[in-house]
Amino acid sequence: MSGENAPAEVLQVTLELLKGRSNVSEQITVDRQVGNLRFQGTFKFRRPEPIQEIEIEVGIARLLTGTDGRPLAVTNAVRMYVEAVTTLPYVLAEHPDWFDLNLLREPEVINDVYGKFLDWDNSFRSQMQPTPQGGAKE
Question: How many CA atoms lie within 13 A of 27 on its CB side?
Fold first, then answer.
């Protein structure tokens, strides 16, 4: 890449990677047994808009901050659950009728669905990682 053309070339590579990449996932199946209950269904995710990413982060921070303004000490499992219940309302494009965050009491199921979202979202982000030369990986 030449020095003065680098930003335009990086932008072009980025735009080429984005072409044809849907903002909505293919159907993703979740099948989870919790005790006597089996939770099975298909989901579709969408990538949050930048303002939604800010709202998600603010929501996570709000739930993980004590009344004194200091961060709460929580386990990784609690943190993941907080991230899941804060993020999923923004990113679920389609979900089974039984998947209602206000009614579902099985955190394992919620975390499984959130994990599927993270896998899909990270696969998108991995394509956008810059190489040491300044371009993007294909």
Answer: 6
